[in-house]
Amino acid sequence: IVRDSSGFALFLREVALLRLPDIEDWITARSQRSDEERLVFNLNLTNLMTLHGLVVRPNPGSSSAAAGLLYRSRFNSAVRYSIGSMVLDLNTIEHALLRSKLSGVTFNYIGFIGRVVRPFPPTDPRSLMALDHPTPLLTFGLCAATVSSPSLFVFRDPKLVYQELEVLAAVYLGDNLRIGTLKTGSNSGSNSGSNSGSNNGQGADEQSISARRTTWIPEYCFWYFRDFGSSKTEAVKAWLYLMRRSSTYQSMKSSDPGFRVKAIKTDTYSWQLRLSLMLDVSPA
Fold first, then answer.
1. How far apart, in Å, are the Cα atoms of 46 and each of 97, 145, 219, 257, 282?
2. Helix axes 161-176, 35-56, angle to 10 degrees
3. What is the pLDDT of residues 128-167, one digit of tens each?
């Protein structure tokens, strides 16, 4: 239905302007473009292409992990734009341009793509669109229009992009990273008549409570945890710092001031389509 609308026809005419040589000249004028400008352009371009692709190549509807990965593997390679004379698909923009300076991702489909799509050599004009510095927070600016992806946000001001990404990270982590408990067998000591037995039982209960503390991380974050730390524990600490202003973090700290990262579990990524919008992420 969207494809037959007058608004979509206007959108296609606007997108066609990206093929103009002036756009390519602006993007590839590396000495005049800051990392922040390239970051804003590539983030907005990726999100635009994703939404455009979903209109013309709709998801078949299955939300299973295997079907979702298969669909997106084909989708990210098939959805491509011409920027001047350069052709870029979604995989290329994310992994060869945005993530070219990052440490890599975990080995699954996403990690496999990250290892196959390598940065462009200096002789390739597309390399002029790549970021000069690692920017892990860009993870929270990419919208896949799924239940488990970050919300859609339009970046407008390169001077504010890092602050906006911090807010987007706090929102996403506050909604998706959770502190829970593992259900384990209760400890019921019966030697209450002995002081030493009572102390041992109390110590065992405290140890059991500590062992049950669990941090549940979204699988989306797990894919990219190496961008935030050398281990999942270090990455979780970085994410907790990013979400420190969220109500989820404040509630966790007030209920358990002595919380430490213990067991780490992963919530499965949902590929079911859903588009959520962030209209304003003005830094506090």
1. 11, 12, 20, 40, 22
2. 50
3. 999 999 999 999 999 999 999 999 999 999 999 999 999 9
pLDDT digits (tens, 9 = 90+) for 61-85: 555 777 777 788 889 999 999 999 9
pTM of this structure: 0.83
89-123: pLDDT as tens digits? 999 999 899 998 886 555 455 555 655 678 889 89
Give burial (CB, 10 Å; 0-12/13-18/19+) of 185: exposed
> What is 22-66 written as a DSSP string?
HHHHHHH-GGG--HHHHHHHHHHHHHHHHHHHHHHS---S---HH
Distance set, CA 115 to CA 12, 95, 98, 118 (Å): 32, 8, 14, 6
Following CA atoms 151, 156, 162, 166 in sequence, which dihedral angle do they give, to the nearest 10 degrees? -30
Tell me the C-alpha distance between 140 and 167, whole Å.
9
